Please model this.
Amino acid sequence: SFSDDVSLLVVLIDTNPFFWSTSSSSLNFHQFVSHVLVFLDLIVRLSQLNQIVVIATGHNTCDYIYDSSLDTDQVTGEGELPALYSFVLQRLEEFVNKDEKLGAKQEGLSEKRASSLLSGSLSMALCYIQRVFRSGPLHPQPRILCLQGSPDGSEQYVSIMNAIFSAQRSMVPIDCCYVGSHNSAFLQQASYITGGVYVKPQHLEGLYQYLATVFAVDLHSRSFLQLPRPAGVDFRASCFCHKTTIDMGYVCSVCLSIFCKHHDKCSTCGSVFGKAQLDAASDRKRKASES
Amino acid sequence: MNNSEKKRMNGEAEEENEEDVEDEGRDAWERTYTDERSWEALEEDESGLLQPIDNKAIYHSQYRRRLQSLSATSAASRIQKGLIRFLCVVVDLSKAAGEMDFKPSRMAVIAKHVEAFIREFFDQNPLSQIGLVIIKDGVAQSLTELGGSPEAHIKALMVKLGCAGDSSLQNALELVHDTLHKIPSYGHREVLILYSALSTCDPGDIMETIQKCKKAKLRCSVIGLSAEMFVCKHLCQETGGSYMVALDEGHFKELLLEHAPPPPALAEFAIANLIKMGFPQRAAEGSIAICSCHREAKVGEGYICPRCKARVCELPTECRFCGLTLVSSPHLARSYHHLFPIEPFTEVSARQLELSRVASKTCFSCRESLLTPGAACTKCKQYFCLDCDIYIHESLHNCPGCESRRITPAAASATMS
Model:
């Protein structure tokens, strides 16, 4: 039987090579992975019933790396490293190679602001959690932990917000430990809306300490801890025309698209402002037939 | 033939209370034989062994039919969705609402389901507003003002509302017309009337009022709890709303929740406008300011108007000093899935799955093995199990397969042309 302190932790690891190769921080990808592996081992040791699922967020694809409940992923055996580590490391390497191959045909990509496919791994994580909910009344308490460094991709705004609202409705907290340079507005909103915790560690050399003290504890016991509180969540929107962040803008009353300047026509839904849409539609028809 | 069947044939509208039935000597277990015929729910498999009905398969096929009909209508008429709605819910609390054909009484059932409806409505239409109106003793009163916060409305409903007197449809329409007259032109005006009575007691000509509502572009819908009435039908036909009569409590809940998602916005009803809105930042923890709504000093936990820097406590709201509509971007983002809906997945039979070149026959998103029919996305060609299909289309609104693909601008324009 499950007591209320059993966790199902779905970890989304950012493997985006464009971030890791250009990152000037004190942490490189291999060091990052070693901190994470020790943390995963900690979760497993805290309770026999805890479950872990690892999903990799790449630049061109996302995929499952490890699922502690699968028979095929049972790791045993002695060696220099604990079996869990070598298993996950090998899978991660396979994933990174696959991710790279899938991007071989692209040219002209600006390396500075290349984002990862966070919306993909979030969606997969939520579907997996729904499957756990369907499995019966006794299941561990699920939560999602994003270990993200890549900057936000503004093209993913709508998908990430959809995932966040779905997580909120299913009461699944989305935590984030952000290892990139500037805060991620998407993940700050995700943690705020779903009741998760967002942390941007100041000293990345001690990443494991942040993970162990903030994210290892199960949801029920969180109420007894003083967890980091956000310094101020960035709720500004990005305008649909330039993708820049704005704090004041114009919203189309029909489709709710956000623009930074006044326009005559909405580029998303085609509504002409100030005119009843039926008149606008018949104007368009008339113009089309005239030309 | 037992007593209750005789009564029904005689046309008596007797409610069957628990006490009445027991007096006739029929217990609950007997009623399941005569009314519910539970043996008809059993099925036999090939070897003659009993097997429970596979509810899952029925549920899935119902879901698929619903999805097909939805996508067919929206594609066919290129309907836009009106997303800023001003809805007045009119609850009929005349004597007829005290009837007990809905257990425990029509009034209690209505209150319970309207609460669920309000939550669902604000979940799906975060910028919209609801106002509650009740009809009692032939007079219509406003229970709550038009507002965007669900708690105020739900609190007003939970109070013990008695029911008495006649119902007056005309008075309700007049009140609602005056209330909705004042809203901005970009909003969609809607009225939802939950009507229990079988008559209406009006001070004037209701047909005139109906024409007035039609001219004011109010979309009136009615859900009846007793029987179909001509005046309600006429009202809904004239104003373009829907008229349904609930058969039982479950059906009533279904009909009510159908009004939660945005109705297809008939193009002539609203004028498209660009509304200036602000997206305030959340104030930092520990910052102290005097909030503009309560006129008190508050610590942290508020929002700052980007135009005049006044502090407000909650969103969405209008800044008291400069009048700017303040929303948080998540409020708007909640509605974006209506703008970018995902296509329904195609059904994949077990045979097709075998023939496909997919290595592991598992659902792409949840990695459960694909046993019986699955579904495939038309764009990314990944396979999903039926449960994920339902979850993706009803709650998540993202296809995990499409989201896990990087589409270059060149490839994107190629697919669009």
